[in-house]
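Q: Give me the 3D complex with zinc ion.
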Amino acid sequence: MKRLAGRGRINQDRTISFTWDGRAMSAHPGDTVASVLLANGIRVLGSSVLMNRPRGVVTDTMSDPNAFGQIGTGESSEPLMRLTQVEVYEGLTAMSRIHKGVLPTGTDTGRFEKRHAHCDVLVAGAGPAGLAAALAAAEAGARVLLVDEHPHLGGSLLGEDVVIDDRPAHLWVAEVEQRLRDNPAVTILTRTTVFNVGDQGAIALMQRVSEHLPEAKRRGRALRRMWQVRTHELVVATGATERPLVFPNNDRPGVMLAAGVRGYLHRYGLVPERAVVFTTNDDAYRTVLDLINAGVDVTRVVDVRPDPQGWLPRRARELGVEVRGGSVVMDTTAAADGALAGVVVAPLGGGETELITCDVLAVSGGWDPLFDLHHYLGGTARWDEQLLAFVQDNVVAGQRVTGAAAGIFGTTACRRDGHLIGLVAAEATGFGSATSGPAAPEAADVTEQAPADFVRVAAVDGDESHSFVDHHRDVTMAGIERALNSGITNVEHLKRYTLVGTGTEQGRTAKVNAGRLAADHFDLDFHMIGVSNARPPSQPVTFGSFAGRALGARFDPVRTTAIHSWHVAHGAVFEDVGQWKRPWFFPQGTEDMDAAVLRECAAVREGVGMMDASTLGKIDLRGKDVGVFLDRLYTGTMGTLKVGRARYGVMCKADGMVFDDGVVLRVAEDNFVATTTTGGAAGVLDWMEDFLQTEWPDLDVWLTSVTEQWATVAVVGPQVRTVMSTLAPELDVTQDSFKFMQVEDAVVAGMPARVARISFSGELAFEINVPTTSGLAMWEAVFAAGEPYGITPYGTEAMHVLRAEKGYFIVGQETDGTVTPLDLGLDWMIADKEFVGRRSLRRTDMLREDRKQLVGILPVDPNDRLPEGAQLIETAEYEIPVAMIGHVTSSYESAAMGRTFGLALVRGGRSRIGETIYAPLLDRTVAVELVDPIIFDAEGTRRDG
Amino acid sequence: MFQIRCPYCGPRDEPEFKYGGQAHVAYPADPEQLSDEEWTRFLFVRDNSRGRYAERWNHAAGCRRWFNVIRDTGTHEMVGSYRSGERPEDAR
Amino acid sequence: MLRGLAAMVSRAEPLAALEAKIAATTVDDTRLTTVPFLAQVGLRLDPDGPAAARLAAVLGSDLPGPNRAVAAGAHRVLWLGPDEWLVVAADGQEDSLVASLASAVGEDGGVIDLSSNRTGLELSGAFAREVLATCCTIDFHPRVFGPGQCVQTLIQKAGVLIDQRTDDTYLLLVRPSFAAYVAEWLLDGMLGLQADFSTR
Ligand SMILES: [Zn+2]
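A: Here is the predicted complex, encoded as structure tokens.
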């Protein structure tokens, strides 16, 4: 095509350059890659994906099935970008990869943002209907979000030569835009596409923020922004798309859609040398008239209808165009590069053929309203026999379709309908009244002659393998017939069998024709066959856009305690416990993990250690009925706890499986504090609230999460009393005054603290709780006071070893949602009272004697440490498959015992203490002796120091 | 993403809530009196119907209240919500 | 020895490590400020019960209703739930607040010091609402939200209590362990808006 000076909505005074397949291209601001290629005489964009056919630009919209390319270089390069949408900028790099792109494999450093927004009325599409709807809704008082995929408002008006209110349409658009921009309740997003419609008005948009700018001008801005909008009302004003016709060799570059041809004229000042128009309807004559007006030789109009007598055909004839009624284009011819050289015209039904030379064939098979968004929430469509198109059938709550998307054609009619829909949508959200709103413009569009119901020109020789139904997927009439002859009777099956309509452009030019052809094949009414459903996203969305800014520190919360900076400064290696970072161990010098953990364990058993226990969940319970409440939740009794005392407890879900555990402190008559596991804190609180609010609302209990109110320093080991006396000289920590499971408020290191004698290691231990902001100061004070005695900070791994030596289970390690308190040997903790889950403990399955039960294990070789998760079997020799009778839940090396050991769940394990079973590993089979879970200090003598 | 109306705080996005299964399944008053079969039915058997369904949600990131929602499982329509202790007819 | 230890006692601000980054990030007049060590006291009671009137006398105002905050004297009362409020005051007020509130509530509810349970972040300036829109789903448009309103919601995956103080000032109260995550989201939102702003 060639560029006409002074035409188009581009700035022809300025020239910018970019490269296409390495070739420098000259462009003007406002051009798309597609328009520049056409202007530079590049008709063949590339080859089709299956049949290797040359292909070119078909139209100027997102519906183009061929105009795709790779944009950018390196890691920010992106495949399958729409060349009809990509705006050129200085330095742009584009490559010809029309139907198949290349994915970069590295990290894309581009910025992809997300933004939340809210509105009363979201209008999708800023053509005449959308603009009228947005203006009507906004002036009724509603908060309006107007979205359009183009850089400018106007929609179809951008590509037409239309007069509105006796002046060029763009002046009307400018006036409406100004009124909208002056309204503070209106947000306008251009270069933005609605790509999904979700429940309760959740609309997803993709905005091109800076990707259309040269890199130097992006300056840290997002390339794209995904908007997540909540709207009360959605107005779908997404227009319509022109339908091509099926005939032999209809895919040659130069065969274009008629509205696309006039779009390139009005938007980019591009015209063909010699055009032929092939149509079933009056609308294509607008292209004829506009081209003639631009001085183009329109050699022939080939109209399927026998006697085109509408106003537009008559006007074309008056201007000297030869209009041939009752005719079709039955084939095309190609130039050396494969692009269009001419068309073969013949009377419909056969007769003398004529070869006409042309560089563009403008085709129109009618118009399809675009209302994909209506389909996303189950909206249906029906075939309209008058329009010869699908239109919306049912109404989806909170959605209204208007303008061409609703099958309403003509600028005035669209404005009129959009205006009314805008008022109705505003009224639905509580603004204005649809019946008393300002008057709508009068309808004054010209009436058109009915279009012909026509899809396809059969090949004279019967070879349909070059009559294309879907350019993007290379689906031909032959392919459609093959599928239908093989027994496919459903369009959704046809779509998946042939891939028709599955292209990146959502098959917009292919779907309706495919359905029509299937209906014709079976001689059925079209509405019996229908058309395959549109599904989100309406355009490709990159993974980077979905990730947004949830990268690095923003990917997931990394929760740290008040003491974290000290741990980092002292070389801690961290373990992830849920979202928390907890010190795993504190290696010294060149120590590996095993050496560090052995040293830390030995220090706790022989001297004194300290641990950051701040992450444990803490729930404050207040009220007169807390004791009753806790008794109904824990397997044990809590109501009898005396003030200043603590008790260990276990909770089950209703199914009787262990759910969480912890120590409950009674700090006042009507005030308890329950500790939970680190990972279980939020779940336990929600679960407690559930019972409190829904089952026992009569109880006087108030629950508050205080996990983060308190930092907890555990000081553990035989020498702990020395350290505690230094820290809290006023506090009597002797055995007689400060007993196991006793709680005292005291001044520790000058800070008010709550001190409890709680032990998770079997050693003499104190837990010091202070407000979180004082946690670091308390930790440093304890460390300073303990330093003379070699106090050793230890991590979660040493804690796990120490508790395992005592046979203490860990929720989530020894339990997995299938383990009851009885399986863990906690019979002694089942009090004689009702509690949640108790009934489950006597279900038949719970009483089986071969349930997996918690036991200790000692590998016969004391240096052999089993991997956790190892399966256990009966015999040393075995053949696969072998019955597995248990598995190892914990396995460590014990400093105190000088050997390896572990815990396991074994079928009927408690009655098998003393027996030897086996762990089959890849390289060896390990014999293990089953022992009581409490392997170390079974008498509990160390607890009191 | 659903928008759910908390009866206390108003409409909020789904991530603020936790799901709690079918509504109006009370914890049995005297579990010990139930047969294994009755108890198992309480533990594990829930309706799974198409159409309007009463279910529990907890406004975990908000007011921490458990409440009930009537949702159409076929269309995702949020018919209404009501407080614990109120009846489905009270949903709005 | 004890005297020496006591001298070491100091409180640590949860966001100390991010302080420099927070101070360096602005969009025009919009900025983030840490507000550590606020006195915060949890209140639990039946608003229709006998304690409510006694409390109103102590607080100098009625307990606010859903999603509302009231300023009364030197403190601010935020609605958290149908039977739960948070009283926020300046650093150092917690002990006296607990004492006066507890005497008003008596046995008809609960009063609890939660001063360390959340830390404060103040977001202020003309772009504050847009910063929130980058990471929070709540509609802060002046038509539906304004000074005197508060909301418990999420900043992405972290719970947060947001109290709108003035037309363009929001106080965010966050659990200390989530504070860095929340600050990182707000700062990143500011970074994006800063880039947009600088190219206007
Ligand atoms: Zn709520």
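A quick observation: Residues 36-44 of chain B form the longest helix (9 residues).
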